[in-house]
Every structure is written in structure tokens, then in C-alpha cells.
Write a structure and sequence with these properties.
This protein has 290 residues and is mainly beta. The protein has a single domain, classed as Jelly Rolls. The chain has 1 helix and 20 strands.
């Protein structure tokens, strides 16, 4: 084990011990940071049996068309609401989805673009991560301007908007499973792009592929602070804190290109006989400062 991994593991164990203490507190566990300074302003508890289209839309996709996203196709039919949770399924269709003639892996992303965006606050989801070597789930935020070709001309700054990855799960079959990653990307996705990994914490309190855990990020003028189950895992002011509204994304990615799976940072590649898996989301909640 590398020294850096040892210290990460030590911090993870310490976080679990601390979590045990907090769970005995009268406030319960997990809890949101600075709770008295925050109020709930937007949420989806995924009750009922259909996706709330007033809150979410397909990210680059819909139920009619398909969109090539890395090593898979995205189609919103892969998202459903059942048993009080959102399920984003990742599955292989040898004849294409509904026999559309495009064989491959299908999954999707959902976003709140045009429906909800916010500057600053606390953003949290409670979820079970999808099992699989070669794919990853994520909860992230971006500004609408990030999709513009001209975005990112202000170099070395995230103040005009940044990609904020609350978590990405890409370590299912690595030497350090139960780990997630929190990252910041600035100056767009083009030639000015820069990024920083904030932390790669271990999720030891519950098995993240079997049990629910909460993943949160507090965003204010001083930067970004990340949490798992109410425990702080990292902080950064990389690029300067974004000062513009950003919308929410829940997604599953398959490593690869042009809808053909390939080995990527999440391992893999996925093969046709890899198992179908679900990203299960109990809720998404957004708080604002009072």
C-alpha cells in the first residue's frame, strides 16, 4: 500500500469513529453542516411512480432519441422512479434499445437545466452507487455557460462558473474500492481546461454499493467543502469560487468513446456479459443560506 493510500485509509477510519460519536448525538446522524444557517429550498424525494418533469430533463437525451456519451448511449427511458427512489439503469441491449438497431450499453443522465439553478448553498444526495467495473455514477453541478464554445477564455478562473463534482464513483474494482472522488474543473472543457482533485475519501460507514450514504457539498464565497454522511472529506478554493448559478446533474458514465466501451479511469471495459446495474437515488436536496 502506498503511503498516500495509508493516510487516506487512516483518515477514513477516523471519520468512521467520528461518525459513530455523532450518531449518538441528539441531532441524529447524518446531518447537514451548519444546519441552523441553512434552509431547504429545493428537493426531489422521488415519491410516486414517475419522474417529475418539472424538475428534471434528459441530459443531452430524451426517450425518443439516443445520444452517444462516452462508451454508451444515453436515453431517458433508462431512468425510472419506483419504491420511493430514482433508478438509473445501465444495461446491454444486443439489438439496441427497443430493437433500434444500435447494439450497446444504455444508461442516462438527468439535469435541472432551465428548471432550477442556484449560486451558493449546500447540495446533497442520498444514494446507492452502481456496481460495475468500467462505469461510474456522479452528482455534479455546472453553469449553463459551460456548454458554450466561448466559455473558458478567462484563464485560471472558476469565478465565471466551474464543473463541481460532488462525487464520482470510479473505483468499484480497484485496489481501493469503496472510494469516491470529488473534483473541480474550470475554464471549460476545451483548450483552457484545468482541474483539481479535492479528495478521494473511503466510504467505510456503509458499503456504498449496497447501502445508502449521503454525499454533500457546501459552496460559498470561500470555496467548496465536501462531506460524506455529514463528515467533512475535503475543501478547496481552486480557481476561486464560482459566482454564477449552476444546475444539478445525476448521471452514469461508461468509459469509452462513440458508444464503444473501453478501459478508462473506472477500469473496464464493460463487455456484453457484464451485469446490469442501477444507480439508486433516494433524494436530492438543496439548501440556501438564510
Amino acid at each position: 500500500m502506498k503511503l498516500q493510500d495509508f493516510f487516506s485509509l487512516f483518515k477514513g477510519v477516523l471519520a468512521v469513529l467520528l461518525a459513530g460519536v455523532l450518531s449518538l448525538s441528539p441531532f441524529g446522524f447524518p446531518r447537514i453542516p451548519h444546519e441552523k444557517k441553512l434552509e431547504l429550498v429545493w428537493a426531489d424525494e422521488f415519491d410516486g411512480d414517475t419522474l417529475d418533469n418539472t424538475k428534471w430533463e434528459g441530459c443531452y437525451c430524451n426517450a425518443t432519441d439516443i445520444y452517444k456519451r462516452r462508451g454508451s448511449y444515453w436515453n431517458t427511458d433508462m431512468a425510472s422512479v419506483t419504491d420511493g427512489a430514482l433508478h438509473i439503469r445501465t444495461a446491454y441491449y444486443p439489438d439496441g434499445y427497443n430493437g433500434n438497431g444500435e447494439p450497446g450499453w444504455y444508461t442516462c443522465g438527468l439535469d435541472t437545466n432551465g428548471r432550477f439553478a442556484q449560486t451558493y448553498g449546500y447540495f446533497e444526495t442520498r444514494c446507492i452507487l452502481p456496481k460495475g467495473n468500467g462505469l461510474w455514477a456522479a452528482f455534479w453541478l455546472i453553469p449553463d455557460s459551460m456548454n458554450s464554445r466561448d466559455f473558458g477564455t478567462k484563464e485560471n478562473s472558476g469565478e465565471d462558473g466551474a464543473e463541481l463534482d460532488v462525487f464520482e464513483s470510479a473505483f468499484f474494482d480497484s485496489k481501493t474500492p469503496r472510494r469516491v472522488s470529488s473534483n473541480i474543473h474550470i475554464d471549460g472543457w476545451g483548450p483552457y481546461h484545468k482541474s483539481a482533485n479535492v479528495c478521494k475519501p473511503f466510504v467505510l460507514f456503509n458499503n456504498p454499493y449496497e447501502d445508502y450514504n449521503t454525499y454533500g457539498m457546501e459552496w460559498n464565497e470561500s470555496g467548496y467543502t465536501f462531506y460524506i454522511n455529514g463528515i467533512k472529506t475535503g475543501h478547496t478554493d481552486f480557481g476561486g469560487a464560482s459566482q454564477v448559478p449552476e444546475y444539478l446533474i445525476l448521471s452514469v458514465e461508461v468509459g469509452g468513446k462513440d458508444a464503444i466501451p473501453a478501459k478508462d479511469w473506472a477500469g473496464g471495459p464493460l463487455t456484453p456479459d457484464s451485469a446490469t446495474t442501477d444507480f439508486i437515488v433516494d433524494y436530492v436536496r438543496v439548501y440556501q443560506y438564510r
